[in-house]
Amino acid sequence: MDKATRTITGAEAVIKSLLEEGVDTVFGYPGGAIMPVYDAIYDYQNQINHILSRHEQGLIHAAQGYARVTGKAGVCFATSGPGATNLITGLTDAMMDSTPLVCITGQVASPLLGTDAFQEADVIGLTMPVTKWNYQVTNASEIPEAIAKAFHIASSGRPGPVVLDIAKDAQFQEIDFQYEKCTKVRSYVPSHNVEPESVEEAAKLINSAKKPYVLFGQGVILSGAEQELKEFVEKTGIPAAWTLLGLSALPTDHPLNVGMLGMHGNYGPNVKTNECDLLIAVGMRFDDRVTGDLSNYAKQAKVIHIEIDPAEINKIVPADVALLGDAKKVLTKLTAKVEANSHEEWLAEFRACDKVEFEKVIEKDLYPTKEKLTMGEAIRMAAEATNNDAVLVTDVGQQQMMASRYFKFSQSRSCVTSGGLGTMGFGIPAAMGAKIGQPDRHVVCIVGDGGFQMTMQELGCIAQYNIGVKIIILNNNFLGMVRQWQQLFFDRRYSFTELQNPNFVKLSEAFGIPAKRVAERDNLQGAIEEMIAHEGPYLLEVMVEKEDNVFPMVPTGASVSNILLEP
Amino acid sequence: MAQEFIISAYTENHIGLLNRITIIFTRRKVNIESLTVSESAIKGVSKFTIVVKLSEEKVKKIVQQIEKLVEVLKAFYHTNDEMIYQEVALYKVPTEELTKSNQIEKLVRQHSARILEITKDYTVIEKTGHKEETQVLFEDLNQFGVLQFIRSGRIAITRSPIEKLSVFLKQRDAELESLD
Prior knowledge:
With about 575 residues, chain A is an alpha/beta fold. Chain A is built from 23 helices and 20 strands. Chain A starts with 6 loop residues before the first strand and ends in a 24-residue tail after the last strand.
């Protein structure tokens, strides 16, 4: 029988559609309402690598990690009811951080919809606010088209998560399978052609600016504009700072890379925001953690906003010139129009700030002389042990900020972190997905003792598939970031932030993952090198100073000018 | 400063889209004063007309978010002055009151309302107009005891000579084709 018209079940159509989209990896967890799909994938194991997580939150964060390092949509399977509701945190996270995901959930059979059937949940209603698009399939004939549309919507424009909720009877139904990729949806404009007049206007502002300043975000990575960004800043000589999600788009050691923006970003990048005369925002959305007090944010500067999502234009910071479109295309056109320039004195102002920050903060973090270990030194050693070329995956909290500040990067798509939503428990599963997406690179997962315990059951998944992630638990026996705020803003009233932890080494070993604990400086570097040299997954618990803080810090509601270098 | 705005959106006629749109308001704790959804002149395309009381800055951002939805074709907002709009109201009064005197008949004439149905027990009156106008008739009729009253959401039309939806759809098609 002709391949194009062979009658197959809806469930098999799901698998074949995924293959048409070039999917080779699926993160999933079976259950009643998605069993036909699981029966179908059983015959396709040589073409699709299915990773069985230990919890649906784990699988969706893994899919996020995979998507972030590969640029491809992460694919998830989950069952109806609790399976689907367990995806909600990951969907929200992916929505906030523009991560392309296609999540396929089983649903009760269509005649049972709305009857409070076993494991029935209103998945379409529940996921509506946290998806770019969702759709319920009740007829198998809709499956190929729905999946094609799901991939197009998830991956194009500003990417995001999509949910397809497929009723169980549709999975059993037989159809003639034919697949056609979706390239356009009339109600959906993923991008925009760059307006030449706006490019001219922006170029004029850039050419006449004395203290221009580039802020770049994940839009650069999502559009693959790393080279274009580099060429733009190199031609114009403009200092460039990154948002948390823009991290790794420009190599750490690039002479025009001046560091990180935001609440725990670098000193210069924050204070210079209020001293520049032109702000060029590339693929970033002026998150409140970046801007601090908006009424004192870059008021003196003209603003050029390069952005693919029209809803971001003028949402937070009004743009004098908005360049709507894909960052790669906009930057290419803009670079052609701007004059070659350099801003040595202006750049030197950033470097002077770096010196202050090094003396007041960085030196103590990275090269401590006190007895207790710091998070910063462990992170520095992990970066060095991987020649500044590893993929960094972090959890959320103090270690996230320390790792973002001190890890070093030589290539793009190398930092996976939960930015917008700040999801604790993200790190371990996201690292699994990142390692599966980039099997030949080192993947270092920095996690705190709190966040680790939110998704530590995924050690089971890591062991089962021998996923070679290197996990560093920076253990301070505290929910460190909350404790830091309690210390600084709540009069040291440590309300429910101290943890009694299990023996992480034994725990890891129980899962079959070798592990070690280190508490002395003399042993730290050796332990990290041993971990990196180890084939396969490894867990290293680093006992760090209990009450260390992350500085600099822009306190909530303060202006970026008033960034604190010490308590 | 908060004032009344009319938000209009052309959308695909898809299940759940109403929910996706109202979520945008709910999330920002914005009340919808009135809402009308119906098929537009083009089959398969729905028209939403939503009335809100908001500052222009907020309404602008909400419209951006509505337009961002995958299944929304186009969204925009206008002040009341910029549009011609109507609402329709139905009033049920006891027929006994109608026959007792000519006062209800007078009100119907004064308000340019009309009678839709008369039964032994009740009479149904219809009036189209702005909310203030249908409200005044309600209060006038209520002296005779309005048994039931219902008012629709707003419908509105721009002052431009033709509805450019079909032109817009063609332009959209060309726009999507031109994206490289």
